[in-house]
Amino acid sequence: MCGIVGYIGWREAAPLLLNGLKRLEYRGYDSAGIALLNGSLLVMKQKGSVSGLEVAAEGLSLDMQSATLGIGHTRWATHGEPSDNNAHPHKNALGDIAVIHNGIIENYSALKQELTAQGLIDKIWKSDQSLDLESATRSALRHVDGAYGICVISSREPDKIVVARKGSPLVIGIGTGEFFIASDAAPLIEHTNKVVYLSDGELAVITREGYTVKTIENIEQEKIITELDFSLEKIEKGGFEHFMLKEIFEQPAVMHDVMRGRVRLEEGRICLGGIEDYLDRLKHAKRIVICACGTSWHAALIGEYLIEEFARIPVEVDYASEFRYRNPIVGVDDVVIVISQSGETADTLAALRTAKEKGALVMGICNVVGSTIARETLCGMYTHAGPEVGVASTKAFTAQVIMLYMLALALSKGRTLSHDEIALNLKELSRIPEKATRILELESQIKDIAERFQGARNALYLGRGYNFPVALEGALKLKEISYIHAEGYPAAEMKHGPIALIDKDMPVIFIATRDSTYAKILSNIEEVRSRKGRVIAIANEGDQEVSRLAEHVIYIPQSSGPITPLLTVIPLQLLAYHIATFRGCNVDRPRNLAKSVTVE
Ligand code: M6R
């Protein structure tokens, strides 16, 4: 949520900052700005996208074009509407300090009254001449409650950038005689693969010669340099019109990547390195609680079904945002699994910390390597889906579901499933990428269906069992990128309310694959048809029965119930994508949304 970039080195800072901001635009795109320091300090900021700012930057003076130090920001508004004025960076009254802030300062109202037209850092700095930019920033942060990721520069100390974080992520990229700052690794990768992740409560001072990291309490910290393991091509569109479409199409490859080294087909076993030492404790957990938000929460629901079915361990799934505030009953015998693509979602992080405080074993399933959630969990597994840039999560979801599938099997080993049963499941899992590829080949059929339904105002997604969470996910995809109101329901629940909505204009998307509830789903389809609802069905290849009932059928390969979500979700992603593009929506940057929600 909101993106920060910074540069200090020997190259012209402005194009580097603007390019970095473009790579971070999925974090927020309400307004954007840069501050450049070259003797004097210049702030240029405006409402709208980075490309608008780029045009404005063409008018930079020669002096500012040659500035080799600067900071930049792309905003997702929390407090205050998107406007030129509310865009970051902000300057103090004298115009010699520029600050960028991500996050929410909870005591902002009290501070604002005290500081209007001056600035906290400036006020503290002026009150004590012995201070420097670093210590003035440190003191200022002691007055602040809430979450922040901040960058500060000043013409009074023109050769440094001070950064600090609590809640909002920050990464320092290490080049040769130059350093980069960013909210995540995406803008860094074309310049360096060496990074240092700041932890909460840390403040760094970066000059052209190097950097130091201390805590807000001024205690020096030893930081580990991490090597990034993804390439530039992973964060570019690679010929696709949108990142979302590219990421949908990447799924077969991602499925392979998630399983690589973990699914040992020949031996019929699973090897989950990140949790190996804790597997016994996991197997003997009294209960597993899974916390997540959004799409990750839908994956968690599938995880609940999988773990309970295979490993027979009771599982509860909680919205991370609710878990923290309802004083949950969790203790040392419980395992809490947090799932997050970004590894930075504020609510999920808060749930993790609550679970830790209560003594539970906390395990993470994250996509972004080195993210805060990944670092704060005791053990965990990376999904290895590669960077997900599209705001609507797609490949991260399928990767999470595979991860949970493997976890459920690993937990059942030696307890509830035999070696042969596990081997059989693994064999089926290993066939999933090829089946996913076949579904992607149906894109043009799905596009045709999308064209017919682009004018819909509402949509209902219905599924049962393993496909109920998929119905939720299909509805979320549609609403977040096309702005059509959509709801997902367990198909049988339809009769308890949503059926009242059905009329000749209502598309109802059924997931009607052949599993234990197939016959019931057919009856649900009949119920919708008799009320003139327009049925689109996802069914298994060769199913004639469904084609008799539905207006459109998307046929997918056969698979067992527990594995179907990995396949049924793909047509729903494509349907949402194409409906949204027919409606002229910017699917990679849906209104009001940000990729990573780092505020509560
Ligand atoms: O990074 P996370 O997985 O923690 O993010 C959770 C949600 O914010 C995210 O899944 C969101 O719902 C997506 N926009 C869904 O497409």
For the structure shown, list the relevant keywords.
3 domains; 36% helix; alpha/beta; 6-stranded antiparallel beta sheet; Rossmann fold; Glutamine Phosphoribosylpyrophosphate, subunit 1, domain 1; binds 5-amino-5-deoxy-1-O-phosphono-D-mannitol; 8-stranded antiparallel beta sheet; 600 residues
What is the topology?
Blueprint: E1 3-8, H1 13-23, E2 31-38, E3 40-47, H2 50-57, H3 62-65, E4 69-75, E5 90-91, E6 97-102, H4 108-115, H5 120-127, H6 133-142, E7 148-154, E8 157-166, E9 171-174, E10 179-182, E11 194-197, E12 202-206, E13 211-215, E14 226-227, H7 243-249, H8 251-259, E15 263-264, E16 269-270, H9 279-283, E17 287-292, H10 294-311, E18 315-319, H11 320-325, E19 334-340, H12 346-357, E20 361-366, H13 372-376, E21 379-382, H14 395-412, H15 419-430, H16 432-440, H17 443-453, E22 458-463, H18 467-482, E23 485-490, E24 507-511, H19 518-529, E25 534-540, H20 544-549, E26 552-556, H21 565-582
Parallel strand pairs: 17-18, 17-19, 19-20, 20-21, 22-23, 22-24, 24-25, 25-26
Antiparallel strand pairs: 1-4, 1-10, 2-3, 2-4, 5-6, 6-7, 7-8, 8-12, 9-10, 9-11, 11-14, 12-13, 15-16
This protein binds 5-amino-5-deoxy-1-O-phosphono-D-mannitol (M6R).
Describe this structure in words.
- The strands form five sheets. The protein has an eight-stranded antiparallel β-sheet with strand order 3-2-4-1-10-9-11-14, covered by helices on one side. A six-stranded antiparallel β-sheet has the order 5-6-7-8-12-13, with helices on one face.
- By secondary structure, it is of the alpha/beta class.
- The mean pLDDT is 93.
- It folds into three domains: 226 residues, Glutamine Phosphoribosylpyrophosphate, subunit 1, domain 1; 195 residues, 3-Layer(aba) Sandwich (Rossmann fold); 151 residues, Glucose-6-phosphate isomerase like protein, domain 1 (Rossmann fold, 3-Layer(aba) Sandwich), CATH 3.40.50.10490.
- Helix 1 runs antiparallel to helix 2 and helix 18 packs parallel to helix 21.
- The termini are close together.
- It has 21 helices and 26 strands.
- Strand 22, helix 18 and strand 23 form a beta-alpha-beta unit.
- The site of 5-amino-5-deoxy-1-O-phosphono-D-mannitol (M6R) has 17 residues, from helix 10 and helix 18.
- 5-amino-5-deoxy-1-O-phosphono-D-mannitol binds next to helix 10 and helix 18.
